[in-house]
């Protein structure tokens, strides 16, 4: 969040239609939305949950999900985001109680920035129904079987080498099996990460550490802090790290024009749909993510995640050193990362990259998520290939919902969207992939037109 115009914590609460300030601290003061929206800066942050006003200025630094994800809602109504991110809201509310400074005045609407009250209420009613019907409860057997198939792939890859030796064909097959297990482990730790955001001692949290750390060699905390921002404000520039392309690409319809008008040319963007194949899928995980993960763990002194990550590499070298030696083992895991990176990029980007991208527009939760996401048609293969992230809409609306329930809530979400005229997009797998390239070309053409003519 930007600086500027910093407010003090003791700002005088507003008087609204005869309702007095009500006594400062202790939660008895009343505020207008105009007053709340002033407190949206780095050193001064308020937000609203269920009409209660909280000063999170100091708490944001200690927020388990990271300072950025909670700061993204400073000055706004965060009710739906709060419900979406926390599997056990009652557990979290005890941390909110000391932060309470008041509530919205009775004359104030429950929703800021002129949001569609009927749509917001209908979505909250849908969420209540989802909770009543138990669709947020996970089936442990499902995830045990899923973890079992990942471990089986790892064991088969190693077993083939022990039994048949290291021919080129078997080494390639082994690499493909390891890349598959790595990709599937990525989808699994994604589930555990969303389900472990409240209680750090929960089994979900321990399993996430095991899967992302020991099975993948990455960092759970790095993933959590990055991914929760993506869910909080998907496809919003400066708030969603997944659209921070570091000037390598221009994305959406507005950013290319902005770059073109400013005559910014860090790359030949009108060719980005071509060089994407060279630096996007091949390099995201092996290079960019690896550098970012190591840097984050050391800067934050996250030694627990570092130990989990090192256990992955120790296991890999213990298992494959007898067959390939040190440099051969490095080459093997690098090739596996290369294959996994392609899989990861196409699955994650086909749901988001062709969708709307913009600066902050303060939309309601459902509209914001639907404008930034689309679904891929359901099939047994699509479910497995994408880790059920073909149901990206349902996952974004209900991040803590276990994946085996997405297909149950999808008809309810579609009906709600039809009622309020919110587009609900479903594509084939082929169209989802080709739209990634089409969107990059469109954005590149917009940049070139603005660069040459504006």
Write the layout of secondary structure elements.
Layout: E1 29-31, H1 33-37, E2 40-41, E3 44-49, E4 52-55, H2 67-71, H3 79-85, H4 89-96, E5 100-104, H5 117-132, H6 140-164, H7 168-195, H8 203-215, H9 220-232, H10 254-261, H11 272-279, H12 284-299, H13 303-349, H14 365-372, E6 375-376, H15 380-386, H16 392-397, H17 406-420, E7 426-427, H18 429-453
Parallel strand pairs: 1-5, 6-7
Antiparallel strand pairs: 2-3, 3-4, 4-5
What's the short story on this structure?
It contains 18 helices and 7 strands. The protein has helices spanning 33-37, 67-71, 79-85, 89-96, 117-132, 140-164, 168-195, 203-215, 220-232, 254-261, 272-279, 284-299, 303-349, 365-372, 380-386, 392-397, 406-420, 429-453; strands spanning 29-31, 40-41, 44-49, 52-55, 100-104, 375-376, 426-427. Mean pLDDT is 90; it is low at 1-24.
Question: What global shape is seen?
Answer: globular
Alpha-beta content class:
mainly alpha
Mean pLDDT: 90
Number of helices: 18
- How much of the sequence lies in strands comes to 5-15%
Largest sheet: 5 strands, mixed
Radius of gyration: 24 Å
What count of domains describes the coordinates? 2
Write the H/E string, N to C. EHEEEHHHEHHHHHHHHHHEHHHEH
Number of strands: 7
| Distance between the ends | 29 Å
Subcellular location: Membrane
Transmembrane segments: 141-164, 275-293, 313-336
Pathway: Lipid metabolism; polyunsaturated fatty acid biosynthesis
GO molecular function, one term: oxidoreductase activity, acting on paired donors, with oxidation of a pair of donors resulting in the reduction of molecular oxygen to two molecules of water
């Amino acid at each position: 969040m930007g600086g500027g115009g910093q407010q003090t914590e003791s700002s005088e609460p507003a008087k609204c239609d005869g309702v007095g300030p009500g006594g400062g601290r202790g939660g008895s003061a009343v505020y207008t939305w105009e007053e709340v929206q002033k407190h949206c800066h780095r050193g001064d942050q308020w937000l609203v949950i269920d009409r209660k006003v909280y000063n999170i200025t100091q708490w944001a630094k200690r927020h388990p999900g990271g300072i950025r994800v909670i700061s993204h809602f400073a000055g706004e109504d965060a009710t739906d985001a709060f419900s979406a991110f926390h599997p056990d809201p009652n557990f979290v509310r005890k941390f909110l109680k000391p932060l309470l400074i008041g509530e919205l005045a009775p004359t104030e609407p429950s929703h800021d920035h002129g949001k569609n009250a009927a749509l917001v209420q209908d979505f909250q009613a849908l969420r209540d129904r989802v909770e009543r019907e138990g669709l947020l409860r996970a089936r442990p057997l499902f995830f045990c079987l899923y973890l079992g198939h990942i471990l089986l792939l790892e064991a088969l890859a190693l077993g083939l080498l022990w039994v048949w030796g290291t021919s080129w064909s078997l080494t390639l097959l082994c690499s493909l099996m390891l890349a598959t297990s790595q990709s599937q482990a990525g989808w699994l730790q994604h589930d555990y990460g969303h389900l472990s955001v409240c209680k750090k001692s929960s089994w979900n949290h321990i399993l996430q550490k095991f899967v992302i750390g020991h099975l993948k060699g990455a960092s759970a905390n790095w993933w959590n802090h990055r991914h929760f921002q993506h869910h909080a404000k998907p496809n919003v520039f400066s708030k969603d790290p997944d659209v921070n392309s570091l000037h390598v690409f221009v994305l959406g319809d507005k950013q290319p024009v902005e770059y073109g008008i400013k005559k910014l040319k860090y790359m030949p963007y009108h060719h980005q749909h071509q060089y994407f194949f060279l630096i996007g899928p091949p390099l995201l995980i092996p290079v960019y993510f690896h550098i970012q993960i190591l840097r984050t763990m050391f800067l934050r002194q996250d030694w627990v995640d570092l130990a989990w990550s090192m256990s992955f590499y120790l296991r890999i070298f213990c298992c494959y050193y007898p067959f390939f030696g040190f440099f051969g083992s490095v080459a093997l895991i690098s090739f596996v990362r290369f294959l996994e990176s392609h899989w990861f990029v196409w699955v994650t980007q086909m749901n988001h990259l062709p969708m709307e991208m913009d600066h902050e527009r303060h939309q309601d939760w459902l509209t914001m998520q639907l404008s930034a996401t689309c679904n891929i048609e359901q099939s047994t293969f699509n479910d497995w290939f994408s880790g059920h992230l073909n149901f990206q809409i349902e996952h974004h609306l209900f991040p803590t919902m276990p994946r085996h329930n997405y297909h149950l809530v999808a008809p309810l979400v579609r009906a709600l969207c039809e009622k309020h005229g919110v587009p609900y997009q479903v594509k084939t797998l082929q169209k989802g992939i080709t739209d990634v390239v089409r969107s990059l070309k469109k954005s590149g053409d917009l940049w070139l037109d603005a660069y040459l003519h504006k």
